[in-house]
């Protein structure tokens, strides 16, 4: 039986300013694909006002199984591979829980 507990994620990606324009293009394309996934309830791609090269992603997935499926998609793997050598620091990623 499928686990119906939602997966809620928050991630921050600090992009080297030299690459921000190309990363934004790829991030928006990837966001559009993720938004079409059956398991995606919410996917917000934002950035910090005071640090425009820091992307912040907030996402909610319907279940762990659908989140795991999401992580295996070619466009998700391609995006993270694309970020190689474009980040100033390791991404900060957290799983959250509703209260």
From TrEMBL:
Family matches, as Pfam families: ABM
Domain ABM: residue ranges: 7-96
SUPFAM superfamilies xref list: Dimeric alpha+beta barrel
One of the record's GO molecular function terms: monooxygenase activity
InterPro entries for this protein: ABM_dom, Dimeric_a/b-barrel
Source taxon at top rank: Bacteria
Keyword field: Monooxygenase, Oxidoreductase
The protein, known as: Antibiotic biosynthesis monooxygenase
